């Protein structure tokens, strides 16, 4: 039981890290102020449990102030981890207070992870599961079943629909598997049960998209209460998620598929007209009356909601030009032809959305207004036509979503049409990128709607850039250090080879033989002295491929194999997963292994290398984003004009947050230890180094700014020898690990107040 | 001679050794050479003593074969038959190649075993020094008894032995060397070949298929090293290559491994993301297009290298752990291949639960509530493994039985009251106390202890060593009875007597030296 400025918090451990206490203090202040916060806390210092403990306590004490916690995380394993920690906390609560827990906490994920229907869930690919589910549960299909009982049915949904709604999910903590178990026991669909239970749950854990992607958020999170605390964990990439959720790409393949979609629509309309013309008439009448939804949409009918943010959706009747089904299909055809003609360019075109709208009006006389209704009109049509497999119509849905987006937003977006890929200028592969440049657009409703939004991660430096690019005003911004009884991380900047050649991945020296060789010898030397696992990150996949090939030719890889097995990330996720598992197996059985991987790749974002799975991480080069990309250039320009962020500042910030992510993978706690080797001389510069998280920065000594490979090896040997000594709990107590009594001492509280570094 | 009863595997005439013509005999357990016209061998080496054989390179004038012994000595045979020298040599080489590894392992194992025993047992080491190093008895005799013990226990032991893994870099060890005349030389040893076979079972298959009917061993390996298979970065051009099939099979193996998926959900990158949108949504990250058509030759060779490294590492890893894990693997395979979710639902959660638990654990935040334990330090692990009471497996058939019996024992223990008055009769007890108190019968030794303390410890030590050595000799002596073989008799009369004599004189020397020093 902790006392955080008057709030009694149950903390489910015997000891506490000082920074956890400090973190809770800041968090409490943020909640008190009903404002937003940006908090950076090193990975492995128990951020999640601190967050949960404090917010749950807050909810219990002030149920009227904060009625719901919405916890967003990036990946499915992360979500499950959060729920497990929550379970631990809740068990502790009921043990301490002696009363049974009346909290409902649940995780939500896509159908792929929740479906228990034997056939549907065996599909395993998310899109297919969604589509198949829809063919079984859409309201009109279920209506058809009244006349034709032989149609396939999902009994889990039927049972849920019949009785599940009357009985709220009993209080407790439900992870994805628990939901499935519960669903199986009661014969209810876990997915819809979870979605339904979101409304009255005290704690919801799900992924970013459910809140940030308007197409999904509108379906799932629309009715969540305003008095919620929203937490974005692992939020260092939140701007990219925001941008992703508003962007669309159209390739020639999409258009071809769209063409067949439109033809199918036309045929279906024709057929229905002959058999059941009243249906279309009914729809028309409803649209005239200005009902936003032509039919009452049941939860199961909608596949994707409107792609634009709720407050941009027009609350008026669908314009006359697209009201009848035939007109609308004709409209779609025209739009499609227009897009096709746009893709037949031979040079790169970049234009703003108003330019695009003007052009489409000039060429094919399509107005802005009907475009804005396109997405909604299509949904209404698909429902009216009672089309079973909506997944088949993903292409036309995409096009209509694009139409709605492009006509809604005049700022913050850009349209780029590229006739070919930069690398292969001879092969025509035209793509229309409709790209959002302003992350604040997607997240704005979240900030407006919910009283507190906490953005937190292990690496959020420099803190002040996030409020700028997301356009919000936080009440607290703090970066916490890691109190350590022993310095368990050892960041080294290797700037030179043993032959004094400057090491760098910059473009000019990318092909330089000497640099590649020196990188090789760095890895080789490290493989000889570091126990168990080493993870090495390269700046891009191409770069890694080239270096691996060069190392292979020079025989460096063979020498490394004498010390450790080598595993390499590939573009194929399944192959990489296997390599990863084998890598862990090799670390586990003592043979030791090296994993070569890519910054910004899936491994660098989602996989932790705890303890012996990663005793050293080597970052070869500075992971700048591919700067020649036009989308990036447009975004940089936008940032400069709108937010006064200089291009280089943003690029460096972006590179450094990814570098920090990569090296941060090895330290997952205070009992863990690991080397962090930055192999590029540019890391020594103040503008780069200064953008690393404080908890890494403060361990870079001036002496380790420009090391040669040999010097780095010497330092590493020393470090590893020290770390290999037994490390007991007593060593930490009082320094980086506190008992309740120690925590309450005056002196310690003073110390703790210095942990949080306000900006 | 004893040699007559041995099976002679190969006889090669006209072999010179030390400039002397003679005949080379390869027998089941040894190789021997006798000069022409004489019926005894002047050279005879057990295979077990041989470390390796070396042959003169092709094209040299002298066709030779050299045997290198463990002791470091070497013997060179020169095949001097003009017409068939090369063939003779190769025949001998091939045969040796088959024979040597068999004995090598045994020899190595024995040596290792001896070494280990000496290191672990200081008393034995001292005995070895006293008896063997000072040449009282020969090393063979010394080990004759000792190893006998271990050999009996061996079958069970060797089964438990951990299989030796494969070095990840075994292919690096066969780096080709240029031989100066526009060719490459690969050095292959039996170990490397075994590594290749274990890592790439398909190569072994090919080997069994083709050698020796279609290809000689040498040709096989030459082709192997020339093949696209070995140099994965070279783009496959010729399809007549016998290894192209291996490559395909490997590819398939890799694919099936990939399809099987991973057991640990935390590293499964496929199910990491919780997003089911089409590829059309989101910012297009310029992915390298997966279609092979527009990839340059260099790029695809690069990715082949990467694939090959992943495959190689996976195979090396699998070869190391193949033996122990097959049952577990099979079990999981069956659960996986069924594929449909119902099965995987049953099998998945435990792994997942455990991994999740591990992931959220903060060991240092929790008070250590385990009782403090003392690390178990086993001197002789085999004795620990073969405990005195073998568990009768049929006695405890169900876990319920075990639980019941544990409960029963617990119950008994709770109710157990030591009945101390009934342990000894009072008279025996008092007599025991009397015997144990000073002046009692059992305490007589107290005065003798004085001597024990008077003598300096080094003298004691030396005496102990002499005593142990003499004891060992006596053991040898008594082990000769009953004398039922002529060898025993010889040992007994000739050489053991001599030995005892030596031991006695050693003791005498020590004694006089002591006396001298004392006075």
TrEMBL record, chain A:
It catalyses: ATP + H2O = ADP + phosphate + H(+). Keywords: 4Fe-4S, ATP-binding, DNA damage, DNA repair, DNA-binding, Helicase, Hydrolase, Iron, Iron-sulfur, Isomerase, Metal-binding, Nucleotide-binding, Nucleus. Transmembrane segments: none annotated. It comes from the Eukaryota. SUPFAM superfamilies: P-loop containing nucleoside triphosphate hydrolases. It is an enzyme of class 5 (isomerase). Its cofactor is [4Fe-4S] cluster. It is found in: Nucleus. The keyword Metal-binding applies. Residues 6-282 form the Helicase ATP-binding domain. GO terms for biological process: hair cell differentiation; nucleotide-excision repair; positive regulation of mitotic recombination; transcription by RNA polymerase II. GO terms for molecular function: 4 iron, 4 sulfur cluster binding; 5'-3' DNA helicase activity; ATP binding; damaged DNA binding; hydrolase activity, acting on acid anhydrides, in phosphorus-containing anhydrides; metal ion binding. Belongs to the helicase family. RAD3/XPD subfamily. This is General transcription and DNA repair factor IIH helicase subunit XPD.
UniProtKB/TrEMBL annotation, chain B:
It is found in: Nucleus. GO terms for biological process: DNA-templated transcription; nucleotide-excision repair. The keyword Transcription regulation applies. Keywords: DNA damage, DNA repair, Nucleus, Repeat, Transcription, Transcription regulation. Gene3D superfamilies: 6.10.140.1200, Pleckstrin-homology domain (PH domain)/Phosphotyrosine-binding domain (PTB). GO terms for cellular component: transcription factor TFIIH core complex. Pfam families: BSD (PF03909), PH_TFIIH (PF08567). Its main location: nucleus. Residues 99-147, 180-232 form the BSD domain. Residues 327-343 have a biased composition (Polar residues). Residues 320-347 are annotated as: Disordered. Component of the 7-subunit TFIIH core complex composed of XPB/ERCC3, XPD/ERCC2, GTF2H1, GTF2H2, GTF2H3, GTF2H4 and GTF2H5, which is active in NER. The core complex associates with the 3-subunit CDK-activating kinase (CAK) module composed of CCNH/cyclin H, CDK7 and MNAT1 to form the 10-subunit holoenzyme (holo-TFIIH) active in transcription. Interacts with PUF60. Component of the general transcription and DNA repair factor IIH (TFIIH) core complex, which is involved in general and transcription-coupled nucleotide excision repair (NER) of damaged DNA and, when complexed to CAK, in RNA transcription by RNA polymerase II. In NER, TFIIH acts by opening DNA around the lesion to allow the excision of the damaged oligonucleotide and its replacement by a new DNA fragment. In transcription, TFIIH has an essential role in transcription initiation. Belongs to the TFB1 family. This is General transcription factor IIH subunit 1. It comes from Cyclopterus lumpus.
């Amino acid at each position: 039981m902790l006392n955080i400025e008057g709030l009694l918090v149950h903390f489910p451990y015997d000891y506490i890290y000082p920074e956890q206490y400090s973190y809770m203090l800041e968090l409490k202040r943020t909640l008190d102020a009903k404002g937003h916060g940006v908090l950076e806390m090193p990975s492995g210092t128990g951020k999640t449990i601190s967050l949960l403990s404090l917010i749950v306590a807050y909810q219990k004490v002030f149920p009227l102030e904060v009625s719901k916690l919405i916890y967003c995380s990036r990946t499915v394993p992360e979500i499950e981890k959060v729920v497990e920690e929550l379970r631990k906390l809740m068990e502790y609560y009921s043990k301490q207070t002696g009363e049974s827990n009346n909290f409902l906490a649940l995780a939500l994920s896509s159908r792929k992870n929740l479906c228990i229907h034997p056939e549907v869930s065996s599909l395993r690919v998310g899109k297919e599961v969604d589509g198949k589910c829809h063919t079984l549960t859409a309201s009109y299909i279920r209506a058809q079943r009244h006349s034709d009982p032989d149609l396939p049915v999902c009994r889990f949904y039927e049972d849920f629909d019949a009785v599940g709604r009357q009985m709220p999910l009993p209080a407790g903590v439900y992870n994805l598997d628990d939901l499935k178990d519960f669903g199986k026991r009661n014969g209810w669909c876990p997915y819809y049960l979870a979605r339904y239970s979101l409304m009255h749950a005290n704690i919801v854990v799900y992924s970013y998209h459910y809140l940030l992607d308007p197409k999904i958020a509108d379906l799932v999170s629309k009715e969540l209460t305003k008095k919620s605390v929203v937490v974005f964990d692992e939020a260092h990439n939140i701007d990219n998620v925001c941008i992703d959720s508003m962007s669309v790409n159209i390739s020639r393949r999409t258009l071809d598929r769209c063409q067949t979609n439109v033809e199918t629509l036309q045929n279906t309309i024709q057929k229905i007209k002959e058999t059941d013309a009243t249906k279309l008439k009914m729809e028309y009448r409803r649209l005239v009356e200005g009902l936003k939804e032509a039919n009452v949409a049941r939860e199961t009918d909608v596949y994707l909601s409107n792609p634009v943010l709720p407050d941009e959706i027009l609350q008026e009747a669908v314009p006359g030009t697209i009201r009848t089904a035939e007109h609308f299909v004709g409209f779609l055809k025209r739009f499609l032809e227009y897009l096709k003609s746009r893709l037949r360019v031979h040079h790169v075109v970049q234009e703003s959305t108003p330019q695009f709208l003007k052009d489409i009006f000039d060429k094919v006389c399509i107005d802005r207004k009907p475009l804005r209704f396109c997405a909604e009109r299509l949904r209404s049509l698909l429902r009216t036509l009672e089309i079973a497999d909506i997944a088949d119509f993903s292409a036309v849905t995409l096009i209509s979503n694009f139409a709605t987006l492009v006509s809604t937003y005049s700022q913050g977006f850009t349209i780029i049409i590229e006739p070919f890929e930069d690398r292969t200028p001879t092969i025509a592969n035209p793509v229309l990128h409709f790209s959002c440049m302003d992350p604040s657009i997607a997240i704005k409703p979240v900030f407006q709607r919910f009283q507190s939004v906490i953005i937190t991660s292990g690496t959020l430096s420099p803190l002040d850039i996030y409020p700028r690019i997301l356009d919000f005003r936080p009440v607290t911004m703090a970066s916490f250090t890691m109190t350590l009884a022993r310095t368990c991380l050892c960041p080294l900047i290797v700037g030179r080879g043993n032959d004094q050649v400057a090491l760098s991945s910059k473009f000019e020296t990318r092909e330089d033989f000497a640099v590649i060789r020196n990188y090789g010898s760095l890895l080789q030397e490290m493989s000889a002295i570091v126990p168990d696992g080493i993870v090495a990150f390269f700046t891009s996949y191409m770069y890694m491929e080239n270096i691996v090939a060069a190392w292979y030719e020079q025989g460096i890889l063979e020498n490394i194999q004498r010390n450790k097995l080598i595993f390499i990330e590939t573009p194929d996720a399944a192959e990489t997963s296997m390599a990863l598992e084998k890598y862990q197996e090799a670390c586990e059985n003592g043979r030791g292994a090296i994993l070569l991987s890519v910054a910004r790749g899936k491994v660098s974002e989602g996989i932790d290398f705890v303890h012996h799975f990663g005793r050293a991480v080597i970052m070869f080069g500075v992971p700048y984003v591919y700067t020649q990309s036009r989308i990036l250039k447009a975004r940089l320009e936008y940032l400069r004009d709108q937010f006064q962020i200089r291009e280089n500042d943003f690029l460096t910030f972006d590179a450094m947050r990814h570098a920090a992510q990569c090296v941060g993978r090895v330290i997952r706690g205070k009992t863990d230890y690991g080397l962090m080797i930055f192999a590029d001389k540019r890391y020594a510069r103040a503008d780069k180094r200064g953008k690393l998280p404080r908890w890494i920065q403060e361990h870079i000594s001036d002496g380790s700014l420009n090391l040669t490979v040999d010097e780095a090896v010497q330092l590493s040997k020393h470090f590893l020898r020290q770390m290999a000594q037994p490390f007991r709990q007593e060593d930490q107590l009082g320094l980086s690990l506190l008992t309740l009594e120690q925590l309450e001492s005056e002196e310690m509280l003073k110390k703790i107040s210095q942990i949080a570094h306000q900006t | 001679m004893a040699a007559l009863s041995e099976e002679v595997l190969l006889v090669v005439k006209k072999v010179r050794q030390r400039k002397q013509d003679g005949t080379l005999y390869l027998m089941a357990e040894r190789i021997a050479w006798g000069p022409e016209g004489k019926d005894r061998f002047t050279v005879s080496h057990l295979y077990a003593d041989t470390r390796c054989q070396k042959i003169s390179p092709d094209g040299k004038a002298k066709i030779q074969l050299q045997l290198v012994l463990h002791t470091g000595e070497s013997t060179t045979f020169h095949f001097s038959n003009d017409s068939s020298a090369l063939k003779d040599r190769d025949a001998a080489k091939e045969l040796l190649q088959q024979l040597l590894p068999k004995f090598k392992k045994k020899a190595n194992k024995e040596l290792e075993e001896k070494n280990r025993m000496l290191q672990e047992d200081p008393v034995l080491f001292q005995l070895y020094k006293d008896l063997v190093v000072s040449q009282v008895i020969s090393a063979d005799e010394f080990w004759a008894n000792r190893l006998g013990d271990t050999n009996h226990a061996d079958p069970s032991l060797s089964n438990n032995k951990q299989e030796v893994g494969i070095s990840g870099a075994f292919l690096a060890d066969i780096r080709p060397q240029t031989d100066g005349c526009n060719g490459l030389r690969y050095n292959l040893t039996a170990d490397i070949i075994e590594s290749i076979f274990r890592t790439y079972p398909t190569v072994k298959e090919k080997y069994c298929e083709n050698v020796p009917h279609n290809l000689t061993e040498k040709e096989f390996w030459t082709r192997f090293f020339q093949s696209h298979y070995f140099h994965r970065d070279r783009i496959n051009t010729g399809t007549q290559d016998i290894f192209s099939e291996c490559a395909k099979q490997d590819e398939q193996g890799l694919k099936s491994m990939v399809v099987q998926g991973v057991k640990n959900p935390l590293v499964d990158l496929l199910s990491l993301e919780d997003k089911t949108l089409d590829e059309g949504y989101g910012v297009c990250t310029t992915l390298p297009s997966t279609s092979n058509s527009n990839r340059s030759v260099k790029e695809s060779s690069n990715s082949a290298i990467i694939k090959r490294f992943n495959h190689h590492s996976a195979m090396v890893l699998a070869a190391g752990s193949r033996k122990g894990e097959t049952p577990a693997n099979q079990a999981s395979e069956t659960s996986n291949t069924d594929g449909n979710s119902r099965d995987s639902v049953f099998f998945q959660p435990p792994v997942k639960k455990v991994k999740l638990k591990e992931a959220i654990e903060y060991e240092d935040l929790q008070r250590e509530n385990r009782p403090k334990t003392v690390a178990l330090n086993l001197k002789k692990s085999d004795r620990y493994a073969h405990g005195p009471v073998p568990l009768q497996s049929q006695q405890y058939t169900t876990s319920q039985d075990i639980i019941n019996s544990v409960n029963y024992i617990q119950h008994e223990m709770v109710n157990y009251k030591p009945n101390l008055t009934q342990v000894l009769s009072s008279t025996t007890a008092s007599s025991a106390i009397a015997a144990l108190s000073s002046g009692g019968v059992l305490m007589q030794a107290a005065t003798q202890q004085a001597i024990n303390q008077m003598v300096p410890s080094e003298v004691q030590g030396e005496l102990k060593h002499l005593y142990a050595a003499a004891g060992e000799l006596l053991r040898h002596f008594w082990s000769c009875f009953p004398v039922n073989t002529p060898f025993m008799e010889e040992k007994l009369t000739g050489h053991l007597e001599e030995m005892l004599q030596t031991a006695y004189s050693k003791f005498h020397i020590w004694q006089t030296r002591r006396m001298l020093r004392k006075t």
